[in-house]
Each structure stands twice: as C-alpha cells, then as structure tokens.
Amino acid sequence: MQSAIDMTPARPPAARMKERRSTSWITVAAALISLVALLPLAFIVWVAIQTGWDTVVALIFRPRVGELLVNTVLLVVVTVPIAIVLSVALAWLTERSDLPGNRWWSWLSVAPLAIPAFVHSYAWISFVPGLHGLWAGVLVSVIAYFPFLYLPIAAALRRLDPALEDAAAALGLGPWRVFARVVLPQLRLAICGGSLLVGLHLLAEYGLYVFIRFDTFTTAIVDQFQSTFNGPAANMLAAVLVVCCLFLLALEVMIRGEERYARVGSGAARKQQRARLGRATLPCLLLPAGVALLSLGVPFVTVSRWLLAGGTEVWRWDEIGLALGQTLFLAIAGAVLATLAAMPMAWISIRAPGPLQRLLESCNYIVGALPGVVTALALVTITVRVALPLYQTLFTILFGYALMFLPRALVSLRASIAQAPVELERAASSLGRSPVKALWSTTVRLSAPGAAAGMAMVALGITNELTATQMLAPNGTRTLAMAFWSYSGEIDYASAAPYALIMVAMSLPMTWWLYIQSKRMAGR
What we know:
Blueprint: H1 4-7, H2 13-37, H3 39-51, H4 53-60, H5 63-96, H6 102-110, H7 117-127, H8 134-145, H9 147-159, H10 162-170, H11 175-186, H12 188-204, H13 207-211, H14 217-228, H15 231-256, H16 281-310, H17 317-351, H18 355-369, H19 372-385, H20 394-404, H21 406-418, H22 422-430, H23 435-446, H24 448-463, H25 467-472, H26 480-489, H27 493-521
Helix pairs in contact: 2-17, 2-18, 3-15, 3-19, 5-6, 5-8, 5-9, 5-12, 7-8, 7-16, 9-12, 9-27, 10-11, 12-15, 14-15, 15-19, 16-27, 17-20, 17-21, 17-24, 17-26, 19-20, 21-24, 22-23, 24-27, 26-27
C-alpha cells in the first residue's frame, strides 16, 4: 500500500517560493520585535557606560545598596522555601489524600491569585497596624504568591504514574521514604518553575512592601525616581536588580538539571489511589482552612469592614466609572498590542524552529523576567532624553505594557498555533491565496481561542499593574490600581475599598480559568 506521505501531492515551486518568502518576512518581524524587547536591558547597560566607571562604582558600592541587597536576598531566601513547603503540603492533601472537600480546598488554594499583592498588604496592615519589617514581608508574600507554586505542583502530582511508587513500596520503603525518593524528585521541574515565578515577583513587587515599610530595590528605585528624578542613581539600582533577576534565572536552570522522569511508552497508567488520613483528618483540615482564612478571609473581611464603615459615600460612581473605563481601555488596548507583537515569534517557534528561533524566543522571555519598574524607568529616560514628545503619552504606556507582558501572550499563542495543522496553510496557498491571506484564513482563525486566552492573561496583568502605570501614564490617567493607591496612601482605607473589591471581581474569572486549565492539563 502506498504510504500517506507518497500520496501527498508535491507543492509547485511557486508555492514553495511564496512560503519561503512569507517565512522570511515573519522571521524579520520576530527579530525586530525581539530586539525591541531587549531595549530596557540594553538601556541599563548603555547608561552604565555613559555614567562612567568611577560614578558607577560610587553609586553601586555604597551602604544603602548593601542594605537593599541584604533585605532583598533575605526576603527571597526566607519566603521561597516556606512557599515551597506550604504548596507541596497543600497539593498532596488536595490531590493525593481523601481530605473532605478536597476540590473546594484546591480552588481556595488558587483563589488568592485574584487578589493583587498590594491589596493583600492593604488588608493586613489594616487588620494589624503594627505589621512591619522583614517577617511581615515574608508573611504577606507567602500568602500572596504561594499559588504560583501550588498550581504547577498540583498539576504535576495529578500526572505522576503511581507504578513507580508501588515499585518503591514493594521494595520495602515506607510512605515517607517513597515520597522523598520517588515523588519529590518528579516535582523538581514544577518546584523550580514555580519558585522562579515567586522569586521574580518578590524582586518586582512595590506596593506590598511600601505598605509594611520594608525597603527593597524596587521600592528604592520608585522612591528615587519620584523624589529627585535622579536618573543615574535609579538606573544603577535597576542594574543591580537586573543582575539579581538574571542570577535567579541561572540558578533555576542549574537546580532544574536534565533528569527525565517520564515513561518511555504510554503504558497502562491508572488513577492514583488517595491516601486515607484516618485520625489525622481533622489536623490536616486545619492547614488548608488556615491558609484560606489568612489569604482570603483577611482581605475580604477587611475590605467588607471598610466598605461598611464608609457607607454609600465611598462609592463615588463618577470617579469609579472613570477609573474602570480607563482601566478597561488600557487593559484591552495593551492586550491587543502584546498579542499582535507576539504573533510572529509564536509562528516561527512552531513553523520554523531552529537555533535562531530559540535565540529570539529567549530575548522575549528575558524582558518578561525584568521588573516592570526597570522597563518603565528605561522608557521614561529614553523619552525624556531622545523623544520628549512621547513622554507620558498613550503610545509610551501601551508600548511598555507590550514589552512587559509579551511572554504571557507568547505562551498562549504558541500553544494554540501548535494545534493548527500546517497543511491547512499549504492547501490555502495552493488554491491561489497569498501567504498572508492563507495564514489569516487558517492558522489565525484556529488559534483565536488561544490568542483570546493570552489576551485575557495580559489584560489581567495590566489591570493589577501599578508601578509602570504610575511612571508612564499620561497626566490625568487614573486606573483602578492608581485610585486605590492614591486613597490608601492618604490613609483613607474606606475610600480605597471599592477599588480593591472591583479589582478582585475582575480578576476572579481569569483565576478560575487558570484553575480549570491546570485540571485539563492532567486530563480532568
């Protein structure tokens, strides 16, 4: 029987030429966008060169920078391990034990993502006014960011083949040794990836640590910029912060290793039998219940208390309507721009993989690892020095959003394009359509759901973004986050409460979608 490959009609030379020409133009577009994505990083290096070595040394090697470095390192070193232990324990209880209501506890472990980190801090500082310093930062950071670890760890536990654990138990290993020697090593990728996300968020966060009066590099950069507009000093602090981010990326790659824990064949995987907790059920219930109380109960009780205290007067519908409208406009426009910018890179990553594609794609992910304040500071300085008419304009802030959230759009687009067969593009081209029309009528339409998901993730990030919006937004802009920050900065917590509630309400659907997607990854 003739094979399917032999039966496929060969494409005419003209079609192949059009396809190569289309690929080359898309590659050029992806290369240009990737180079633009490196603009913040390149600008920090350029400023360091222009500042001069002596000035750079004087600005970096000073006691203040050492104090910020110690604070930031301690924050990451203490917070990440606690978040790992908490997330692994919650994931095991909800996915591997017969904990009553495990599905509800699983959703409640993801729900804190719907609450912006600075709203968590606002709630806790309202609840415990004397909460300040490193340990306050660790407490609120763990509560706000542990779901970034819980999601991948829980998803990994659902996909593990129980045959390995059965084999280890048959060799005489007890439950704890089976978990330590068989299960935990298979969670390495999930733990490393989640820890990297948490660490990068800790380096980039501003509002959370301002509330509890804990100084980090990000808070110092924003304060330096807002108080004295000292470009060289702020840029050198940003340079140290960039080095910290790159160090985290390198450390994650080194710890992750190259071990492989997948089966060679599909095998006959069965559903994992849940462990019986027995008498330990009640003590085990205290962990997810306590975490839900701290991460969800405190914010909702605090916001409700301030709403009741403020009454109807805090619902200034003209201000709230304006802030909501501006937030939605910036979120939608920024999401569309970021998705359009990600399309060329997503297309060549699937249709034309190779060394050049991997290099360009890494450029896009590097900018996603940089804190928003670094991107904003670079764009502010560039527009002030080179393109003053663009300073604090709509173009600049949308451009900044596109740079900051490009990886979010890229990940979703790449996954959706991978599910669109390339043969459909070729069939459309063979029917006489131009490469652009063939791409639009086949791949673009089939990848629309993934593009919509990516746009939703970008819009969620823009809705809760604070520092870059403060530095780049045109005069008169007042988003939900900015209005919340303005009132809370004046210690008018009652007036800030409606904005916190609206931001949480807008974020909950996206958080639910992430939870459902993590279930689908495991075939549930």
